[in-house]
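Obj: model holo form, ligand = adenosine-5'-diphosphate.
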Amino acid sequence: MSILDIKNLHVTIDDKAIVNGLNLTIKTGEIHVIMGPNGAGKSTLAAAIMGHPSYQVTDGVVMLDNVNLLELDVDERAKAGMFLAVQYPSEIPGVTNASFMRSAINARRAENDKISVRDFITKLNEKMALLEMPQEMAERYLNEGFSGGEKKRNEILQCLMIEPTFAMLDEIDSGLDIDALKVVAKGINALRGEDFGALIITHYQRLLDYIHPDYVHIMADGRIVQSGKAELAKQLEAQGYKNIIDNANKPI
Ligand code: ADP
Ligand code: MG
Ligand code: MG
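Output (holo structure tokens):
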């Protein structure tokens, strides 16, 4: 079992405090969901954990087992087992989707254990079939000309291929029609397992009709203000963020 332990994390952007002392522990085998109003700092949290250079961590630690991720470069964090599916995946002309994934898989493997072309293609075909993706998408340049829905599906494909220990999926369900949402959920459910943990950031309870998280957290003003089981998302849908956040902030 692996543990991702975020302790007292503070993140600033251009000296503005965005994440303010956030604590969260995720174990492999678990799926956690973070919900929260726009501007709560959800994307900032994920980007800072992955090591995006625009985000300055001013305090706290992010331990992946015995390693403080904050001391590693971005590529070393990926190698250590972290994966981030961003809200707006960028286009990388000149790099095919397949070659990107093969490099990413091999970056996590020892020199004498690289994936063979044959095993890679077998695995790729299997995962693309699961996600109902046409095979030609593997040979296209990364995200170039992909529709919004194709980009989201492709992020899940990368995750299925790379098999990270912990994946952070930022608004993986935004802008999807119901059929695409179901396919993305099917991919996430296929990732589930003893050796995998996830942090899913979403605005919509509807994703949780298809993925059953172990924990739901509400984030506001750069902190987690309430944590619960899947029912918390239902409560949120019924009551709205404001009620829940106000109640969470009330002194006892
Ligand atoms: P969420 O994902 O919860 O909607 P974000 O983490 O994207 O929230 O943003 C949190 C706050 O940080 C917002 O006030 C946003 O305007 C600000 N912010 C995010 N990214 C940047 C950036 N690159 N430069 C300046 N401000 C930013
Ligand atoms: Mg947002
Ligand atoms: Mg966001």
